[in-house]
Amino acid sequence: MNILMDGELASTYRSGAQRARVVTEAWGENNLYCPNCVSPSLSRLRNNTKASDFSCPSCGLRYQLKGQQARIGNRINDGAYDVMLAAIRHDEAPNFYFMQYELGTWTVKNLLLIPSFAFPVSAIIKRRPLALTARRAGWVGCNIALNHIPNDVRIPIVSDGQIIDEGTVRARYRRVKPLAEIRVSERGWTLDVLSAVRQLGKTMFSTSDAYIFTRELENLHPENRHVKDKIRQQLQVLRDRGFLSQPERGVWVLR
Predict the structure, then answer these.
(1) Is pLDDT at 14 greater than 90 in this prediction?
(2) What domains sit in the chain, N to C, each tagged with a CATH number?
(3) φ/ψ (deg, to 5) at 220
């Protein structure tokens, strides 16, 4: 992987958005790889392909690359709110590569992978509709709240200009891939509970510790009136998927 992009590709474009798109997508075609298999490259899809920019020529997984100059923080602008929610609920969300680049040198500073199965509905934040005077009046976009996505599934590819070894990236992807086996109707709960227990800030915790997040989870899942039961169930799911171990009844260890 080369973190330097070809800025010369932007010379014939006036729009900043077009310049960024042309340069970052060309870089992606030459440098991105598939973490799910051994493919060393991704194929660029035709412009305006719905929700995706690249696909893996070997396993077929699709990826979307979103670049920005600002540092990758807790929220990232995305497209239509309803479209993203539908993609998650139908298990059709793409894998995302989130990129921060330095415009003056066209250098990749940070690149973060979040797999398609790692987005809970709680991470999709509705924006205000566009004003009536806007060209797309009434359109409703969304932000992706990265702080609602567990650290386990936020996989760095480039960190502060340092390239992470491909073997390390693929090992992290394999570790979290069991989440994809969970039914999409249940996966949001699993991700939200994993994110919650990570917030405890300790490796070993009790079921009672996890109950601290009952009110928060009630707000995220208002349709469920038995949240403590659901927390216990999801701790078992996380144990069975290798994210927790259970040395004794009611005691859990993050792995």
Answers:
(1) no
(2) 7-181 (3.40.210.30), 184-254 (1.10.10.10)
(3) -75, -30
